[in-house]
Write a structure and sequence with these properties.
Blueprint (H helix, E strand, L loop, with lengths): L1 E2 L2 E2 L2 E2 L3 E2 L8 H21 L12 H4 L1 H9 L19 H14 L7 H14 L2 H20 L10
Antiparallel strand pairs: 1-4, 2-3
Helix pairs in contact: 1-3, 4-5
Length: 157
Amino acid sequence: MVWAGVCSMGKTPLIFIDKGIKVNSVIYVNDIIKGSLLPWAKSHFNRRPWTFQQDWAPAHGSKFTLDSMRQQKIDFLGKDLWPPYSPDLNPLDFSIWSILEQRACATTHTNINTLKSALRKAWNGITSEELAACVTNFQKRLKACIRARGGHFESFL
């Protein structure tokens, strides 16, 4: 499994979760939030405000995770502001993972290490223009979702 974060001005490092590891709250907070997201955000945003948007997988919405994010002073969209299971509103799901798959999987990989290497290379190759286009698309998708009152909104795109 791979975790990543994007914004209009940059992207986090890719985080690989080894096969057989269940991402529970402790792993999510320690390895992803504290181990990757926070160090990247502190250097990337410096002191500028930012808001974390995540889906609401069980590890993301646990009391432990939410308490940890509050303790770290991470501004995030709560369940009441962000719908669960909304891949059409997640820039990684509607755009970025496709770019990675297209670039990293153009050839067959014989082992996990070559796949990881190809993913890192593809990730590093995603340009600021591609990120900006993804975020622009995200804004269009949000507006279309609002027009559709939370229903299917593809016809509004």
